[in-house]
UniProtKB/TrEMBL annotation:
Gene Ontology BP term (one): peptide transport
InterPro entries associated with the record: SBP_5, SBP_5_dom
Family: Belongs to the bacterial solute-binding protein 5 family.
Main localization category: other
Compartments in which it is found: Cell envelope
SUPFAM superfamilies the record matches: Periplasmic binding protein-like II
Keyword Transport: yes
Presence of the UniProt keyword Transport in the record: yes
Protein name as annotated: Solute-binding protein family 5 domain-containing protein
Keywords assigned by UniProt, alphabetized: Signal, Transport
Gene Ontology CC: cell envelope
Source organism: marine sediment metagenome
Listed Pfam families: SBP_bac_5 (PF00496)
Regions annotated as coiled coil: none
Length: 289
């Protein structure tokens, strides 16, 4: 993440300028240093109308970013500037206390300008690809296998694992079967690697259950209403429905068994979560509405 490649950062007294210092020991896998210029190029590239990135809006707090994305402003007028090879200055439209959190998301990661400009749409081909993470993509057999090797020049040190082999199974059932046979060390995710109709069997098998690891996911399942038409446009109707849903009862469903009950839209891991906000299950209160 960017806040790892950044050694530190300072925010101006009025909250509108953030100055990042890029660490000098961060390298691309071709040996080149990662610089502030890489971030300027990458962020402008994401914002450019030609790229048409669906995630460009994440930069819209930057001065001129939205206008540039709409083709109304030249890139030189953007509030993104490399003051030197390792100093990046960001000018915001106004004080934004969450922008440094945005810089830890994948969309703000840099791409190598020299490689992208040289190979254009083919820059991600394995023979051309240059990255900066703890592992290097060594082999990719499409629909079959991906091989990752430890990056000896990674700024946090070479990983403890020398090689990671990722097998691309044809379906979830095959992947689970291969795991149970001990041919792979792990299978990823309930939605991608573990069939939902197999969860009850897994949870009821002590050995497999002991190997099941879960972690909170930054997402929330919810019921949405069309607030432009009746009855969804009535906030009391929406509140009554929220009060009448027993979320704890829903957890009896095997798919939801390890889910956390959400009484508000913002997950607990996200900045701004407030335990005091929310609507609990209360049928009698719902009836009175």
């Amino acid at each position: 993440c960017f806040t790892c490649i950044a050694e530190n950062w300072e925010i101006s007294d009025d909250g509108t300028i953030i100055t990042f210092t890029i660490r000098e020991d961060a390298y691309w896998t071709n040996g080149d240093n990662i610089t502030a210029h890489d971030f300027v190029y990458s962020w402008k590239r994401t914002l450019s109308p030609e790229i048409n990135s669906p995630h460009a809006y994440l930069f819209f707090d930057i001065e001129g970013a939205k206008e540039f994305n709409k083709g109304e402003l030249d890139s030189d007028a953007l509030g993104i500037e490399a003051k030197s090879d390792n100093v990046l200055e960001i000018k915001l439209k106004g004080p934004v206390n969450y922008f440094t959190y945005i810089t830890s998301t994948w969309i703000t990661k840099p791409v190598p300008e020299s490689v992208v400009e040289k190979y254009k749409e083919n820059w991600t081909n394995i023979k051309n690809l240059v990255t900066n993470g703890p592992f290097i993509l060594k082999n990719w057999e499409h629909d079959e296998k991906i091989v990752l090797k430890a990056n000896p020049n990674y700024f946090e040190g070479s990983p403890k694992l020398n090689t990671i082999n990722i097998f691309l199974c044809k379906d979830k059932y095959t992947e689970l079967s291969v795991y149970e046979e001990g041919k792979i060390d792990g299978t990823w995710g309930w939605q991608s690697g573990i069939p939902s109709d197999k969860l009850e069997e897994i949870i009821s098998t002590p050995l497999i259950k002991s190997q099941l690891l879960t972690e909170p996911r930054i997402s929330t399942y919810y019921i949405g209403f069309n607030t432009r038409h009746e009855p969804g446009n009535n906030p009391l109707i929406r509140k009554a429905i929220a009060l009448a849903i027993n979320k704890n009862e829903l957890k009896n469903n095997i798919f939801w068994k390890n889910q956390t009950v959400a009484n508000q839209f913002t997950p607990s891991q996200v900045l701004g979560h407030d335990e005091t906000i929310g609507i609990d299950f209360d049928v009698e209160k719902a009836k009175k509405i």
